[in-house]
Fold:
Amino acid sequence: MAVYPVDSLKRVDQPTTLINEAQIQRIDERRSGFNRAALGEWGAYLQNERHHFIAKEPLSAALTKMDLYLKDFRDGPVSSSKAPLPEDPVSIARHIKEFAYFLRADIVGICELPRYAVYSHDMEGEPIDLDHKYAIAVVIDQDWKTAEATVGNDWISNAMSFLGYSTSGFIASVLADYIRRLGYPARAHHGFFHEVLEPPILVQAGIGEMSRIGDIVVNPFLGPRFKSAIVTTDLPMVTDKPIDFGLQDFCSKCKLCAQHCPGRAISFGDKVLYNGYERWPADAERCTKQRIGNQAGVGCGVCIKVCPWNKPFKPLHRFTRWTIGKTPLFNSLFVRGEKLLRYGMPKPEKKWWLDLETLEDGSFVVPSRAGHWGNNEPEDRQTRNVDEDGE
Amino acid sequence: MAVYPVDSLKRVDQPTTLINEAQIQRIDERRSGFNRAALGEWGAYLQNERHHFIAKEPLSAALTKMDLYLKDFRDGPVSSSKAPLPEDPVSIARHIKEFAYFLRADIVGICELPRYAVYSHDMEGEPIDLDHKYAIAVVIDQDWKTAEATVGNDWISNAMSFLGYSTSGFIASVLADYIRRLGYPARAHHGFFHEVLEPPILVQAGIGEMSRIGDIVVNPFLGPRFKSAIVTTDLPMVTDKPIDFGLQDFCSKCKLCAQHCPGRAISFGDKVLYNGYERWPADAERCTKQRIGNQAGVGCGVCIKVCPWNKPFKPLHRFTRWTIGKTPLFNSLFVRGEKLLRYGMPKPEKKWWLDLETLEDGSFVVPSRAGHWGNNEPEDRQTRNVDEDGE
Structure:
């Protein structure tokens, strides 16, 4: 059973950001920021840091190893017998979602797999041919309590990401295996292993809307504090519709992520058309460099940390969410309240992890710095960054 | 952070059931019920059913396959560098537990690994030598919503078990990998892969008390509705103490599990001394035969289903739990209330799974029966079983 009231969300026929399918060019997997760094496009330092990225901190290293270990569970033989399933795709979709919730998914959504969401080429440069008709999105919370404690770019950041990647990957892998047992092809895409781009699927499956952070989808209950895995399959299921919870107007006014981004990778401006779809333009190179090159932590999730939608599921916040969904009238007020009440501030008293850096020879150091936190003023924030990083 | 108020539980120096360590003989892994069936000790029919058990139903088959897949993640090389950890074992234990909760464990406890909990021989008959000092128990709820819907011995029973086994196995595997990265040996034990017997660890780590069900530990928040995985390690940690939440008197009066057991494997009598420890005697052969030979479902968890401790974490039930912990005076009343209010009745309207049986040739049938449910009277129950099963 769904954990969050997804059935009460306002559904719309078209996503809240413009998508012109005919104009979208499929993406080559090698063009993602992390892969460009790995291929040496941004110099030897970032290439090396990219390779050391996984082993740099032991919590995230253990979780990353699990995601890598699940590689051979992604796909497999399809049963030659088709199971006697209910005739109607509504019942099948309900059953699949209930199984995902049983497997402890936080949110589940289903859409037709958009052709433009399939990568054009894999990491070896081979063309990708994936013609599954449907996509199931499996969402995992990156942990509210840890999100409260963190600065966002300290030594827990990467572990929060890989908690989401490996846990959603575990669930998607079991779900895909089950569907293949029923006699339908199915493949799990998670963490390091994707033939599909996630954001368009998350939008079409009603998981969230595109946000100012860039190609990052924000969910009304978790904000950007989640990772997801995708199961692509031909099992016939009724699909979900995109949602509209008022994010477009909110993001146009809030800008907290842009103000706090230590890599200055997030735009203060308006949405633009890019590759046939509308988005707030983010600088993938700056973002990747910030995450890989972070010397005061491992990875970065400051945008996740400071987003006002990154909240616990409590009555007051539920009321605010509901109001934003009904009218944009109070959005400026809510943003001012967010800043005044300093909701996004790190709570170090809730910190449970150890600051530990594993060096390339396998020895450890206790790092002298754990992230950096500016206040909400963009000028001040940018000054701090220049000072601290010596740029 | 702990999900349940484990810190408010009454801790005791000795478990609530007598344990005479000097008298306990270590157990040979081949002597478990499932393994005796697999070895053909109970005839060709049960031996074959044991082998078909995993593939018999596709939800549990997918989950079982995941548990098996995680085999090579259980143990591995230990980092040659020791991490600079806090000096005090209290902080280390807290950190390890918080990591397990971050990994979405439902309950975590730590104890010294009792020598008698280590199997004497493995499945190949080789002596087991495991001298890790500590054991970390990782508990996963088998899903309250599914527990409400099920009859207990229908087509979801095995999937509920393997949800617990594979999910706790996933968490224990990541946790053990992390500890090895810190420079300490650690091994995950879960599902099919154990060098240790779990019940004594669960008792010593304060997860629960021994119950009438037999060698099954009942937890105050989940009842018997959980599975667990164990990490054994030498990482120095402060240990937890056993708990006393009033189960011994309650089980002496309740007997619902004995009344409902379709295999008549659970005793109506008193605790006895066995192999140096005190327990309610359960008939492992009858229990195993019921689970493996079940023709109206896969596996069996009727005892889990009907146990009054199998409840959601809600105010009324919390108050009852608290009262039972304070005084045994109202236990008979509570048991009568449980029967009158028919709390343990299946709720078919909440059923989300499909009744599907996979035959040995891989084809499917929709089974004509899905478990069987008797009322609370032992005489009636036993009559029904004899009638239905034609014994």
Summary: The longest helix of chain B spans residues 157-181. Chain B touches chain A through 52 residues (CB under 8 Å).
